[in-house]
Amino acid sequence: MTPVTAPHPLPGFPRSTVDGYAVRAADTYGVSDGLPGYLEVAGAVRMGAEPGVAVGPGTAVSMPTGGVLPPGADAVIMVEYTQEAMPGTIEVTRPVAPGDGIVRADEDAAAGAELVPAGRPLRAQDLGMLAAAGITAVTVHARPRVTVFSTGDEVVPPDTPRLRPGQVRDATASALAALITEAGGDPAQGGIIRDDAGALEAALRAALHTSDVIVISAGSSVGARDETATAVSRLGAPGIWCHGLAIRPGKPTLLADCAGVPVIGLPGNPRSALVVFRLIGMPLVRQVGGCTRPPAEPVVRARLERDLASATGRLDVVQVRLHDGLAAPVFGLSALLSILTAADGYVIVPEEATGLDRGTEVDVTLYR
Amino acid sequence: MTPVTAPHPLPGFPRSTVDGYAVRAADTYGVSDGLPGYLEVAGAVRMGAEPGVAVGPGTAVSMPTGGVLPPGADAVIMVEYTQEAMPGTIEVTRPVAPGDGIVRADEDAAAGAELVPAGRPLRAQDLGMLAAAGITAVTVHARPRVTVFSTGDEVVPPDTPRLRPGQVRDATASALAALITEAGGDPAQGGIIRDDAGALEAALRAALHTSDVIVISAGSSVGARDETATAVSRLGAPGIWCHGLAIRPGKPTLLADCAGVPVIGLPGNPRSALVVFRLIGMPLVRQVGGCTRPPAEPVVRARLERDLASATGRLDVVQVRLHDGLAAPVFGLSALLSILTAADGYVIVPEEATGLDRGTEVDVTLYR
Predict the structure, then answer these.
(1) Whole-number Å distance between alpha carbons of B54 and B68
(2) Which of B47, B106, B331, B365 to mutate to test the interface with A (most CBs of A within 10 A)?
(3) Distance (Å) from the C-alpha of residue A238 to the closest C-alpha of chain B?
(4) What value does the CA radius of gyration of chain A take, rounded to a whole number of Å?
(5) Which of B129, B170, B295 sits opposite A131 (nearest CB)?
(6) Which pLDDT belongs to residue B133?
(7) Residue A162 contacts by C-beta under 8 Å, 6 or more apart in sequence?
(8) Which of A23, A80, A277, B249 is the most exposed place for a label (fewest CB within 10 A)?
(9) Which one-letter DSSP state was computed for residue A28?
(10) A274: nearest Cα among A172, A128, A170
C-alpha cells in the first residue's frame, strides 16, 4: 500500500487527560495543603461539545477526561487535588504546570504526518489510527494471484474416497494455498496435470495470463522433473534461472522467469515442497505483493538435544520438537509429511556449518 | 476442533523413495565396483499403477520415485549404483539392506493415528496431511461471536468527514475487530452508545443473546466508567468480577460474567484499551473458541536502551522501537494511539519488579 498521512491534526483540539478543572496554571503556583488556593467555578465542559465558557484569572471550569480545553486555560488539575470550599468555589491544594493534564491538539499526529508506512501489512493499531483520522479506505497493493499446479500420474484430488494401489492424494496443493494466503497472496488451484510435458506446457501457458506467480509441485521422479523443466523452458524468456538448490530437503527446486512471471518448480515430496516454499516462495509472494516490510516470524531460542550433521555449502532445514528448552530434531524421509506435522518449528543449519553440536543454542522458527 | 485420526495407513502402500530398481536385498550382498552383481530386469513399475510384475531371486524391476514396491522386493537400489550390462540385465555395484529406498505403507501414519490434535489452529502442513488422508472436512469450533460497543457522547463513527469541536472518531472498535479476528473470533460492531446507563444496558441486554463475548470500550471519564459499571451490573448474575487491574496502561478495566457471557469493559483511552485487550481479551476469545493451544507470539530478545521505572505490584506494558539489538521505550500519554503505531513491540515489566535497568536483556513481543 501507499503511505497514508494525517489529513488534519489529531486529536484536533486540546483535550483533557484527567477528570478535574481547567485552570490557568499560574493561579495554582505556590498552593499546598496548608495554603490552598481558591478558584471560582465558571462553568462545566460537556463531553463532545464545544466549551461554552472561558477560563479567566481566578476561575476554573469543570472538565471530564477527554473534554475540550476551554479558551484561556493552559492546564487541567485532577479532581483529587481539589475540593469544593463552598458552592461555586473550589480549593486547590497542588500546583500544576502549563500543559499538565492536557493532550495537545496535534500531539497524536500533526497534519501531514505519516500515519502508516508503505509496504507493511496493516496492524490493529494502524487501523485504529486510520479510523481516528477518518480514513476508512486506503489504496493497497492487490493480492498477487498465485496459481498452483500439481503434477504426476499418481496424484489424485484430496476428495478421492478410495485410492487404487499406487495413487496418492494431492497433499501439497492445499498446504501451499494456506502458505500463499499467509504471505498475502490469492491462491488459485490449477489442478493436477498428468506427467506429460505437452499437457503441462499448455496448462502453464494458459495460467501465465492470469497469474502473478506460478507454483508447480513437480512429480518426484527424474522423468517427471525433466518434463517440468522442459515445459517451463518453453514458456518464455528469459526462462530457467536455476535448477537445483543447495538446500536439504529441497534440492530439485527449479526457479524461472517466464515472460515476466516468476515460476517455482517445487520438489515432488510434500515435505520438501513445503520447506522450500517457506524459504523461497513466501518471500517471493510478499515481494510481488508489495510487502517490503514483512511481519516477523515467531522464533524461540532452544538448545539442541543432539548433534546435527550437515555438509559445508548446503543449507539444512531440520524440523524440531520443543520440550523443556530443548530442540529435539525430528528425523525421517523427505517423503514423510508427518515430520512436519509432528514438529513445532525448524532450525536452519547454515551453508558454512558442517553441523551443529548437541547443546548449541539455536533459533527455532515456529510453525503457526 | 476435535482430534482427527487417519482412516487408513499412509501412504497406503510400500513406496519407492528413489529412482532405481526394486530388488531382494539379499541378491545385492557383497557386490562392489570390482565385483558387481547381475540381475535380470523383469519389468517396470509405472507411476500411479499397480505393479504388473513381481521380483523373484536374481531379478529386478525398474522403479520411479513414488512407485509401488512390487511383490517379492524388500528394497530399491538407486539407479546411480546400477548400469545396464546388456539389454534386460543390470549390473549392481552397491549392496542394499532390506528397507533401503522404501517408505513403508504406514510410515507417514498408521490407521487410527492422530493426524491433527484438538485445540490448535490448523497449520499448512496439517491441511496437507488431512488432504493426504482424504479428509476434506473437519469439525471445528465455531468462531466466537464477539460484539464490540463503544460508548461516549464525544465518539462518532470513523467515516464522519468533519468533526465538531470535542468530537473524536471511534478508533478502538476497528482495531479491536482486527485483534478479535486474529484471535479466531467473529467481531460484530454493536455501535456507539451515548453516555447513558439505560441506553447502554438496553444495548448490552440485546447483545447477550447473540454474543459469546461482549467488549465495551468504555468512556474515559469517571462518570462514563461508572455508567458502564452500572449497566453491566444489571445484566445478570454472577455479575462483575473485578473493576480495576494492576496494569499500566489499563487500570480502569472491568471484567464480568453476565448470565454466562464474559463481558470486558476496556479503558476509554484507545491505547490502554488495545493493550488490555491483547493481554486479557485475546486469550479469552481463544479460550471461548476452543483454542487451547494458541500459536506462539513472535518474540525477539533485545537490550533496554534506558531505565524503565515501575512500581511493585503493578504490571507495566511498555511500547518499544527496535534498532541495533536495542529496545528503545516509546513514552507518552495513554491517550496517544501514536505510541502504539510507532512501536515495533512491547516489553512487560512484571508485578514483582520495581523497574528494569538500562542494558537488561528483555523479551520484546512484536506487533504484527
Answers:
(1) 11
(2) B47
(3) 30
(4) 32
(5) B170
(6) 97
(7) none
(8) A80
(9) G
(10) A172
